[in-house]
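Office hours follow-up: a student asked to see two folded examples consecutively, so here they are.
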Amino acid sequence: MNLYIFTAKFYLILFVFYLFSLEAFSEDTEREVLTSYEIMKTLTYSKIDERLLRNEDGTRADYRTITVGDFNNDGKSEILALALSKKYRDYVWGNNNKNFSKGNSYHQQGNELSKNGAWKSKFISINNSKSSGKEFLKQWNIKIIGESRCVHPAQILPAHLNKDAFLDFVIVCTGYDGYPYPGEHSLVMLSKGVNTFTINEFTDSKGYYHDGSTADFNNDGTLDIMLADSNTKKLHVYINEGNGKFNKNNYHFPQFSSLKTYTTEIFDINGDGFFDIFLGGYEDGGGSGNPTRILFGNKNNKFSTKQMVVIPGISGFENVLDVIKIGNYLFIVRTGSRPNFYKGALIQQISIRTMKTVSTEKNNSMDWIRRIFTLKDFNNNIYYGSLIDRTKWLDFNFKNNEVELIYKKNFLLNLEGLYKKEKDFYIIKDSEIPFVPNYDTEVHKLTKDRLRKRAARLRIGGFLESKKTPKKYVETFIELARLRDKEITDGILLPIEKGIDGSIRPLVKHQKKINEKCGNVERYSGDTLFFVLRTNNHTRMIHQQCVYNYFKNSYNNISKDEIAFSIYRSFMHSAPSLGEYLNNYNQFKSIVANNLTSKEKGDNIEKTSSSFIKDWCLPQNKYQRNIPFHRLEEGEKCPSKTSLISKETALDIFLSEYNEYLDKIISTKGICDDTFKNYKYLRELIRERKDFEC
């Protein structure tokens, strides 16, 4: 009897152990086959306020590197990202991006400087828990063993790469982003228990690795890593040996074909059970670009250009950034190509069955979308779009094979009905509240550097009106701003820094919280409020709406600061009258005219800046010379087979495509030779961006 009971208990224990083993095995198996695409694109995430992702030194997360998930299995989500060092960012893109165009010798020196550890990127690790619909972001304390870091990370890929229960990370690195584009090693960060990781280089050579993905290439049950190297124009597969080691294997891709790409994903596109390779990138490239392609897989995971399909391009949006599969369709994220490089965003819907374009949605004025995700709102409704709030304007629902934008393209930021939309511009309307000057306005001189962004500065005093304060005396400095670089904007700047004179002091105490919530007024230093008179920049209107909402909420909900809201609202409603006053003020008008180029003289704030007059020509046939030339070089009009472009567009093309050519003719003094008629126009075009003497 005792033997029978013992035997029964023994088999019962074995059976329970068997059940637990099956459960554990199934969980581990699911983890190990869940690729980086499946983790990032098929799981659902909540949108992130990217402005909160900053290091203690103020450096922000590089938006393309943000990844979210339950990385320590505590049932809550964490955020991991990387921030470029301030030294690196300022050296390469400082001075309003002018540093990027300083020539090869400048960037060769930058490449040497980037070898200093202070130029390496830093991790940002945050707990992304939520409470009552409001985010509370606290530090996620992780321990990283190892000193390996990269200068310029392109992507963080979450994937299970070892045998434990925690996610690991692949850090794809490009290296110094300037001539001669030397590349650097990519990194792998393997979990070593809860909140602990080891980090090491895993590539056998440096490369300009712009993107990557994971999949089981050799069918051994563990995920391997694929990297896209833009320098060698190759796809490199690193086989996971299971012990933290990764060895490059050339079996899976042809070694004599150019597979240059800047964007890649691995997933089963055509539903045949084998994973496929999506290759996107810069399709235009001045005639040397690469089309967006799909390499179809097979049971051996050996890929060939013979089993490939080309995705239709979109003119003007030939820069491909990401892709997601939804049902029987691909949704491809694009941004502007020449001459509007990295401007605006477009989402292209492709039928997997026909590989033809079904629909497109675009927004020319928004910032470009880094990645596309499956998202959920507070009610757990599923939608698709950008992970960060900054680039939400093409987020969409997809139901019954139809795309429905969540934020309609014609969405108008009207701030109490003050703005109207005409074509691509937000324009402030006349309001019922006038500005009444109290004494003579004093015009102040501005430095040459400040005049590039501002038309004039003056001290102004007078009455503003509002519902709460029928007549409010205001005395302060005011500047009329004109932005004519990457946007067309006229507006009024109101400084609110400490020590400012006049009755706007109640605004000063809010300046820190305004900057935290809405950010500084882009491209201006100091603590400043900005009142848009006219703009084609959607992001600038979003910023103004954010500031308005802040003051309104400070009155309604938080501090009951009626005075601050009243003053801000008074300025907002007086802005049309202020703009008209400034434009008609003779002394101011004279100084503005003197500060503008000859082409801009006589313009007023209600007209598009004449600096955007299209007076340069761009050849359209790739077999012609592709260098822009002034229309007066060959007469009054551009010849046939060329298109009219603005001087800003021409300058952008010269600096991005023909910078070496410019450096050469400057160093040889050839730019001073008027035998070439176009050189006199070229000198004027590049004078503020290049140093030369004639």
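And the second, which I mentioned at the end of office hours:
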Amino acid sequence: MLIPSGTEYPWEGQWATATGYTVNDCVHNDGSGYVCISAHTSGDTDDEPGTGAVWATYWDLLVQQGPTGAGTTGVTGTTGSTGTTGTSGPTGVGSTGATGITGSTGVTGTTGAAPTGQLFLTGAGMWPSTSNGCEEAAKLEYVTNDVDVYVLGFDKDADEFAQATVGMPSDWDGGTITATFFWTFATGSGAETVQWACQGRSYANDEALDQAWGTAQSVSDTAITAGDVHKSAATSAITLGGTPAAGELVQFRVYRDISEDNLAGDALLLGVMITFTRS
């Protein structure tokens, strides 16, 4: 700018370091204006106008920054509308990476137990063996509530046998079976035992009937109370004679093995549950 005396006072803007200043150069710093009174090249901070240690050697205060005016802050202006969303950039180009190698197949789990089926041989539906047979099926009445059941009586003094004939289901796998005995007694005491046994043979078409039985398996059960239902545990696996297969005729033989029990009276057989495995 120009002063009326004709002296030139060049305006250099914001004071800066490492800048050459000549006499009458004007700058501003921290809100105030200064005029150079001694030519120099500015350093870092010592000659900074208004704050440096020796600033008055090089500068005179020309215009001092006034105090901050008093007054309340004005109301915030209305927010402008959101600008238009810019156009999406193009999708990057690149080939899909190669498929990773397929992992090895895990270990095959343990095969679960085969499903089972059951059939029940009733005391009413079985008959005494011709040789060493048990008593014929007899109907017993429990008179208080008129409950009638058929039983086969097995003597305490000799091994006695009963038989049944069954056509096995078409889904039988031809494997081993087990037998569970349902029975009661009228004579004897609690804690005495009965030894039940079961064996059988499977017959295919055109096989002779008169053939050997398979190996018997037995189970012991303890008497509890006369006139109560007793259910034994299952026997060990019974292998039937012949070449067992689905749908074949099976002849079962059950008996009381008195050499292994001590019930002091007849054991009365209500029926036998046969459990088999399905294919």
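Two things to take away from it. The chain has a mean pLDDT of 92. The first strand starts at residue 11 and ends at 14.
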